[in-house]
Specification:
mainly alpha; 7 helices
Length: 156
C-alpha cells in the first residue's frame, strides 16, 4: 500500500493517511493481520515527515482499527469491509460501468465528483450528524484518496 498525499487538497497529510487507510479497510484491500508501511517507508515514498505518519497511526489506533506492536510495526486489528463495497463486488462493477459511461459522455473528474456529491447529499441527508458529514466530505475527496485503490500488496 502506498499513500498518495495531495498537498493542494487543503487536507492535512496525516488525515489523508487516515482516510486512505480507512478506505483500504472498507474495500478489503487491508485485512486483519496486515502490516501497515513503516513511518520511514511512508516518509520515503510520500515525502512526509515520519511523525506525520505516526500521528495518523495513533489516530487509527485510538479508533481500534490498528495496533502498534513494539519492535514489529503497526498491524490492522479490525476490518470494516462490507461485502457490498469490496473490490470485486457487484456494486463496484456497476459503479465502474457508470463511470465509464460518464467519461464517454465527456464528463471530467470534477464533473463526476460534483454530480456524485450532490446525489450523496440528497440521498444521505439526515442520516448522520452534520459535523461528521462535513468532515467526511472534506477528507474523502477523490484527491485525498486516489492512488491506492486496487493495490493488495501485503509486503512492505
Amino acid at each position: 500500500m502506498e499513500f498518495r498525499i495531495d498537498r493542494r487538497s487543503g487536507v492535512a497529510a496525516y488525515q489523508q493517511i487516515v482516510q486512505q487507510t480507512k478506505q483500504a479497510l472498507r474495500l478489503g484491500v487491508l485485512l486483519p493481520g496486515d502490516q501497515l508501511p513503516t513511518a520511514k517507508a511512508v516518509s520515503q515514498t510520500s515525502s512526509v515527515n515520519p511523525n506525520t505518519t505516526l500521528k495518523a497511526y495513533r489516530e487509527l489506533e485510538r479508533e481500534g482499527l490498528v495496533e502498534a506492536r513494539p519492535g514489529l510495526g503497526t498491524f490492522v486489528r479490525q476490518s470494516v469491509t462490507r461485502p457490498q463495497v469490496a473490490a470485486d463486488s457487484l456494486l463496484r462493477g456497476e459503479l465502474e460501468s457508470w463511470l465509464d459511461r460518464a467519461r464517454e459522455a465527456g464528463l471530467e473528474q470534477d464533473d463526476v465528483t460534483a454530480l456524485v456529491t450532490s446525489v450523496l447529499e440528497e440521498r444521505y441527508a439526515g442520516t448522520r450528524p452534520a459535523a461528521e458529514h462535513a468532515e467526511t466530505a472534506a477528507t474523502e475527496a477523490p484527491e485525498a484518496t486516489t492512488g491506492m485503490l486496487g493495490t493488495r500488496g501485503r509486503a512492505w
